[in-house]
Write a structure and sequence with these properties.
Blueprint: H1 5-11, H2 23-32, H3 36-43, H4 49-62, H5 65-75, H6 84-96
Helix pairs in contact: 2-3, 2-4, 2-6, 3-4, 4-5, 4-6
Length: 97
């Protein structure tokens, strides 16, 4: 089971995400592997503020600021001014607890 940021990062060397990751963590895992489509497919039907924030992050990364703003609003947060890599790390830390 992945419980730390460093173990999550190490798992990126594998071809498939580790067993036991929830949808939010799997989405971020696929995003880090460069598979935006898979990351988006996983998160798009998930409920909750964490999922909405990840959804916003993915649209921000895609370059669709309008759609990203919508999802950030659903998450109850503002459009971030942090870099994409810093936001990704913060999201991973958040979902790992």
């Amino acid at each position: 089971m992945i419980t730390t940021f460093s173990s999550f990062e190490l798992s990126l060397a594998e071809d498939l995400p580790p067993a036991g990751l929830d949808a939010r963590a799997r989405s971020l895992w696929y995003d880090a592997k460069g598979d935006w489509q898979q990351a988006h497919s996983i998160i798009q039907d998930e409920a909750g503020k964490d999922a909405a924030r990840i959804h916003g992050y993915l649209h921000r990364k895609e370059g669709d600021a309008s759609n990203a703003r919508y999802w950030y609003s659903r998450a109850g947060c503002r459009f971030p001014d942090a870099s994409l890599s810093a936001e990704w790390k913060n999201l991973v830390l958040q979902v790992l607890g």
